[in-house]
Amino acid sequence: MLDVLSNLVNQLFGFLKDNPMLIAGIFFLIKNVYAKSQPFPTVDYGHVSAISSKTDFDKCIKEDGLAVVDFYATWCPPCRSAVPVYARMSETYHAKGVRFYKVDVDKNRDISGGENVSAMPTFKVYMKGKCVGTQQGWSEGAVKKLIDDVL
């Protein structure tokens, strides 16, 4: 009996050693399934408004001053990590008249499609309805630079 168990353990370790990419893929899949099951993070600070219609989007970006829009997906890990930092950023720039918005690309495909958003997150800066800057991917420094360059 001990020989059978020892043989099974040796075969298992041999399989793991011979298939590292398969094992990594399985762990990646499990991680993603778990991440998608978690609620999207929310914060109770900041000045970020959700946009849920094309009409609202058009109105928000055409107002005077600068508008920053975060195009995100709830299943996107970088989008999740950006939530608290983006909210703090909105507090910092609020005094300068910069408005912060967010658009869920899965719920607002007409907006994200019309703005040619192909990667999440994508941050766009608008001045009087015109896009004046775009940052694909989450980098706090890059988003701040994007805003500062336009200010």
Automatic annotation (TrEMBL):
<dbReference type="InterPro" id="IPR013766">
    <property type="entry name" value="Thioredoxin_domain"/>
</dbReference>
<keyword id="KW-1015">Disulfide bond</keyword>
<feature type="domain" description="Thioredoxin">
    <location>
        <begin position="29"/>
        <end position="151"/>
    </location>
</feature>
<dbReference type="InterPro" id="IPR036249">
    <property type="entry name" value="Thioredoxin-like_sf"/>
</dbReference>
<protein>
    <recommendedName>
        <fullName>Thioredoxin domain-containing protein</fullName>
    </recommendedName>
</protein>
<dbReference type="Pfam" id="PF00085">
    <property type="entry name" value="Thioredoxin"/>
</dbReference>
